[in-house]
């Protein structure tokens, strides 16, 4: 009679033999992509540099640094999509850098420029703007999958920052110094700062211009219009750019009023959420 096969010493009956054990490949570690995150870091540096320049009284340079941060912020996501280097790390880093460049930096710049002369009122306006930027970025991250991509829900934080620093740039270029001692200009900055901060957390739809990106084609007239805008900006950049920022800052309410008058849906929420506490919040 054939003897039963002997198990290796220390092996219990029914346990898999070493030859039967299959080692699964270890999951690859997700790396950190250099190019899009380097652009995001450059935007963070621009925001930080803007704060430093405002502390030194160089408000024109501070405003330009915030505008540079806005340009870089518009590039990092597009570069990540074009190079297929999107990552959760990059998304979180982008939000944190946006809070510095378009939340804290403009609030501190406008406070140093004009609002500190208003006492507690100026402090409140600067904080409302900073808090509005934080709330707007948090809502953007949580609603990113249910918002109509053609529109932003509320004024985007780069546009809000451009609105605030645009006012500072225009007035500084016009020769207004020591603004905290000019009540009319200080209160104007107060109003613009409050408007930008509160508009970031409204539900007004602001056009995102995303339908023009990527591989989508546009009419020839659009290219001609872009060329005319570039030529117009070259006439006097501070005034022309600030006028464009103001028009965009008002456009969301204009779109909301137009849709309301036409009886159309005013919310930019594309699909309703399933959470019970969210029902009825997005008519």
Main pleated-sheet profile: 2 strands, antiparallel
Beta content comes to under 5%
At the first level of CATH, the class is Mainly Alpha
Radius of gyration: 26 Å
CATH architecture: Up-down Bundle
- The helix content, as a percent range, equals 55-70%
Which fold does the CATH topology refer to? Four Helix Bundle (Hemerythrin (Met), subunit A)
Number of helices: 8
CATH level 4 superfamily: CDP-alcohol phosphotransferase transmembrane (TM) domain
Give the spatial strand order of the biggest sheet.
1-2
Assembly type of the chains comes to single chain
Overall morphology: globular
Structural class: mainly alpha
Order of helices and strands: HHHHEHHEHH
Structure description:
The chain is mostly helical and 283 residues long. 61% of the residues lie in helices and 2% in strands. It has a two-stranded antiparallel sheet with strand order 1-2. Helix 3 packs antiparallel against helix 4 and helix 3 runs parallel beside helix 5. The chain is globular, with a radius of gyration of 26 Å. It starts with 33 loop residues before the first helix and ends in a 21-residue tail after the last helix.
């Amino acid at each position: 009679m054939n003897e039963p096969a002997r198990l290796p010493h220390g092996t219990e009956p029914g346990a898999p033999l070493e030859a039967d054990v299959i080692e699964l490949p270890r999951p690859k570690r997700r790396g950190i992509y250099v190019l899009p995150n380097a652009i995001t870091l450059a935007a963070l540096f621009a925001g930080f540099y803007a704060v430093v320049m405002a502390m030194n009284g160089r408000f024109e340079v501070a405003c330009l640094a915030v505008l540079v941060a806005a340009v870089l912020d518009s590039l990092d996501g597009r570069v990540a999509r074009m190079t297929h280097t999107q990552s959760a790390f990059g998304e979180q880093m982008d939000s944190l850098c946006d809070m510095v460049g378009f939340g804290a930096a403009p609030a501190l710049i406008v406070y140093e420029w004009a609002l500190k002369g208003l006492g507690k009122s100026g402090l409140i306006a600067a904080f409302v703007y900073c808090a509005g930027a934080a709330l707007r970025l948090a809502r953007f991250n949580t609603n990113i999958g249910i918002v109509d991509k053609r529109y932003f829900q509320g004024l985007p934080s780069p546009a809000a920052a451009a609105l605030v620093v645009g006012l500072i740039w225009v007035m500084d270029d016009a020769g207004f110094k020591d603004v905290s001692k000019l009540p009319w200009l200080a209160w104007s900055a107060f109003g613009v700062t409050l408007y930008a901060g509160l508009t970031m957390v409204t539900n007004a739809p602001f056009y995102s211009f995303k339908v023009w990106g990527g591989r989508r084609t546009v009419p020839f007239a659009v290219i001609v219009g872009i060329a005319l805008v570039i030529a117009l900006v070259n006439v006097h950049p501070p005034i022309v750019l600030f006028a464009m920022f103001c028009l965009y800052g008002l456009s969301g309410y204009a779109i909301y009023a137009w849709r309301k008058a036409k009886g159309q849906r005013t919310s930019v929420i594309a699909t309703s959420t399933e959470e019970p506490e969210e029902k009825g919040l997005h008519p």
